[in-house]
Amino acid sequence: MQDFSIWLTIVGLLIIFSIVGLLIWNKISPIVGMTIIPIIGSFLAGFDFKDLSGFLSAGSEQVMGVVIMFIFAIVYFGIMQDSGLFNPFIRFMILVTKGNVVIVAMATAVIGMIAQLDGAGASTFLLCIPALLPLYKELHMSRYLLLLLVALSASVINMIPWGGPSARAATVIEMDLIEYYLPLIPVQAIGAVLILVLAAFLGYREKRKISQKVAAGEVTISRNVNIHAIADNFTKKQSEEMAAAKEQPRDIKWRNLVNLVLTILVLGTMMGGLLAPQYAFMIGVAIALPLNYKGVDNQMNRVKEHAPNALMMAAVILAAGVFLGVLNGSGMLEDIALAAVAIMPAVVIPFIHIIVGIFGVPLDLLTSTDAYYFALLPIVEQIASTQDISSTSTAYAMMIGNIIGTFVSPFSPALWLGIGLASANMGKHIKYSFFWLWGFSIVLLGSAILIGVV
């Protein structure tokens, strides 16, 4: 029996290291890696097709609710973006800045938080960078400050259930997604306040840098920044994008207000526990489609437009169900954790989740998001559980510590989009933003510990 346990540990580690290594080196997609490699590993460990069928069934059952929620949540918020729900607010925030560098930095943070409510980093950069870059150029503000503030704001908001990290973490610890998310709301609130404080500080620092450049004769500041022209240009561009789409939203006077009320009702129904998230968003999509678009073809074309993003994340989560089903059902994960506890210094074990959380941002530069949550989190959770540390506490510590680094990692496709839109350089962005983001993540993790979330 002891020999079999050792063999399970070896096979489990081979599965995990193979997946992590291939993901890091970009040699395999998450869907392929987390499906094929665990299946091969289960056979190497001596399990047969009957055992494998049980593992796969348990894993699929574990993630199915999250998969359905992802599909409908991404489609729902895609429809809201297409219909222009957030555009008036962003225009208002641009006008509020009045060309003040400090206020521009703070407004950037607010716009980034609002834009990330759909849980899609790519759309956040698509919305924020083109809208704000002209203003930054006009004021001679650094485009890397723009990227930093959008990345930071989006990362904190990305704790939402349909944002990815929460779904991954809740899937690993087999917890209801909304039950998992609710304790994170105070952490997000603290994060939002800290972002505004940091944005004000960085804005003040940027203002001093600009003043020094003006004094040195490097730049000339225009006293009459045409903030209305910049806001009008944003509105015009959004209108052109909506006009370019084959499907035009219904021309209803109060459409945005109705969409806002619908969004509040969908989120309220979900957060209040009246309906499971997947059903709340399913009903929301069913109402939003005819509300915003005429005709079956137009409505289904909107679904098709957002289906690739929705199905890609759903497929990854389903593949993760295979991975987790095999590792949990076979006992590999438990044996790996027991082996790690046996060789780890006793003083480290009670704080393993916090230690890993502290290094979450640097780990984002070394591992992909899927590798961090589906390979590292299960091991740390098992080790921490030997010290009676709850699975939720471990998941929160690792997620809060890591999520701030989402958009400073070269493994993030959305970040590459943002870099391109800002005509920036990835290396310079990492150099400019890394330590601010890492420091922020440690402060936020410390706040979560103080209020008892971790």
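The record above closes out task 2.4. Task 2.5 opens with a second protein, given below.
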Amino acid sequence: MDKGIVWITGASSGIGLALTKQYLDAGWQVIASARTKGELVSLSETYESLTFVPFDISDDSQVHAVREALLSHTAHLDCVILNAGTCEYLDMTDTDPDWKMMDRIMSVNFFGLVNSVDVCLPLLKQSSRPHLVGVSSQAVQAAFPQAEAYGASKAAVRYFLSSLRMDLKQFNIDVTCLLPGFVDTPLTQKNTFSMPFLMSSDDAAKRMFTALASRPFEFAFPKRLSAMLWAGRHFPKLWLSMLAPKKNSNQ
């Protein structure tokens, strides 16, 4: 993969931090963004090629300032990986479900990604071979209980990127949608359910880095989870009987 300048959001922990390390070790100049530096502090002491630009992606009032901050470091971006995201689960057993959760999750996972595209698009257009990458999720491949907010936001990301791919072709900007499975991150460590084929952040980042070299339209991994979700889509009644919460006798 040609070395260049990459901007990574959600870079202070989890997959974003692992991707930052991956690109730094490969010799790229990395501009990392998150609300706070987090674990990027120690990386900054090791790599001169790492720059931190703070960005709360859910705050669209920051778009202009963040774009100007990026421009103060570089006139172009060769690759952008929009990885920042969050997750909450809707509890339908609650007498008053938290429907406002939909707003919170969409504001980060979907509108936050849209804000990030707004920031970086002018800089991508200045690259000789630009690549825009967004992170969706394997959760969009089949329905999961309590994932109404998270799954819907990631499905929106997937469609947005698919449509954007068509409109950005005239500018020679390649667009890739990544669909990772269960990855061991601070977010997933809160999960109380089984996570088949769970992988480390470093493993996920290596797979992403390798896949992005060929600039695919989509890259879903691991394949074993993809196969399981394929079965879920094609046998929805069986999938429902396996995953849907069982009726509580007290309800």
